[in-house]
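Render this sequence as a predicted structure.
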Amino acid sequence: MDALQPLPRAKALPDGLPPQAQAGCDINPYVPDRDPDHWLYRLDAQQWLAAADNELAAARRAALARQQRAAVAQARRAAGMALNALLYTVPDPAYGRSYMDHLRALAQDASVPERIRQAAQALLDMPLRQELVVLGRPSAAIAEPAATIIDYVRGLMMPPVQA
């Protein structure tokens, strides 16, 4: 299993941050107030992770119900929400604003483990429509790349406690 590696520090922090935030630390010490009108700050990092978990559960339910379009869309959203949790504390303009922007950037980010880039690419490559009728038992495997990304982000944000 790949060791967890943080995403690179933001290339450019937002203007108007206090001096300690501009000193170049890896995790942004400036945690903005929640702002219901801002695309990223409407939830805090923990709320973004909780939303990602809920969306992942919905993706799995949709996959088990053979609802391909809903399962793929919800899996992509789940991974994007997890990345919003990380962007809340480590802003990086290269990751864009949309969940798809986040996934495209993650798939190309050489600083993250290969398995995480592959999970992002798998979500990007998933077709929204299933052209063939699939026989057999339904599977929630379509959501697993999103689960991989969520677990990775959660590990970055909440590293294991050393005893």
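Summary. The two ends are 21 Å apart (CA to CA). The CA atoms of residues 72 and 127 lie 8 Å apart.
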